[in-house]
Amino acid sequence: xxxxxxxxxxxxxxxxxxxxxxxxxxxxxxxxxxxxxxxxxxxxxxxxxxxxxxxxxxxxxxxxxxxxxxxxxxxxxxxxxxxxxxxxxxxxxxxxxxxxxxxxxxxxxxxxxxxxxxxxxxxxxxxxxxxxxxxxxxxxxxxxxxxxxxxxxxxxxxxxxxxxxxxxxxxxxxxxxxxxxxxxxxxxxxxxxxxxxxxxxxxxxxxxxxxxxxxxxxxxxxxxxxxxxxxxxxxxxxxxxxxxxxxxxxxxxxxxxxxxxxxxxxxxxxxxxxxxxxxxxxxxxxxxxxxxxxxxxxxxxxxxxxxxxxxxxxxxxxxxxxxxxxxxxxxxxxxxxxxxxxxxxxxxxxxxxxxxxxxxxxxxxxxxxxxx
Length: 372
Fold this sequence. Notes:
- There is one protein chain.
- This protein is an alpha/beta fold.
- A hairpin with a 3-residue loop joins strand 2 (25-28) and strand 3 (32-36).
- It has helices at residues 49-61, 73-76, 80-92, 104-118, 130-136, 153-157, 240-249, 251-255, 261-274, 278-298, 319-328, 361-371; strands at residues 18-20, 25-28, 32-36, 97-101, 121-125, 142-146, 165-170, 192-197, 220-224, 234-238, 302-303, 309-311, 331-332, 335-336, 347-350.
- The chain is built from twelve helices and 15 strands.
- The chain folds into two domains: 18-36 and 278-371, Aspartate Aminotransferase, domain 1; 49-274, 3-Layer(aba) Sandwich (Aspartate Aminotransferase, domain 2), CATH 3.40.640.10.
- The strands form three sheets. The protein has a seven-stranded mixed β-sheet, sandwiched between helices. It has a four-stranded mixed β-sheet with strand order 1-2-3-13, with helices on one face. A four-stranded antiparallel β-sheet has the order 11-12-15-14.
């Protein structure tokens, strides 16, 4: 038997065994109890008493069929729970229509696949997630990488006048916390479509969590439920013509296995609870702001503006040694390296949730500083 030869070209990944014990603590590799400060459950919503009550009610009332997958959309159709959920998200986001996917990766891949198939040129922000990049590679469109933090949309579109152009960006980078504000509009380019991947910002911005950075008004919003809302799934909201095309051409939608109907009911409850968590959002944002102030005082290089803070250790620092040192100090953090990050710029994501306290900030900074 011939087995694949593994020649990665980068340091081999390790996958820890992590069991959440509370909103702030995990059990690492079955024996070490650590404070986690890097979870993407930005609101720790599953630990909310209101959501726990809703979860118990939904599970008790759901028939057995709601706990199993029905197969692919193409073979098994869809389910009333999913249709109702999609409509509720479209209404919340003030969109014509919405289509749900089982994960943010599959949603982004399908969006990229559609854009690269139906448009002549796609302007892709340099911070876009791997899922978008892989999807964009599927079609014949010319993919033009661009830094939308420094370019206005109008300026970026000028060389492509007369063509069908799409612009796609990530609202908040999931590792570094960098925010992409879509500067300017696309007036005069009627064939231009603007898409914003909001997987890491949805649920965290504005009074009810549904705002976009600086009030951006994209044509299509990709909103995730596996981050701030703490469940699973992702929804693409936008014009009905776009979502119709996505249902026809998006291979993850057409062919992949559909999540069980009970998930869509849980997602609907998570969205409802999230919209009333203004105080919890403020707490998470306040902790992040205090962390960045302390990092600045300690001379530690960082990025981020909202709830995510990216910390940049020296490239010469051993990721494994740094993670181990942080664990010895009681903190669970991971160093993202190549190919997730440029070789010369590894990054640690820190994200506090409302259950964390200010007392954690100083010890965390001290631990990080001692490894620099």
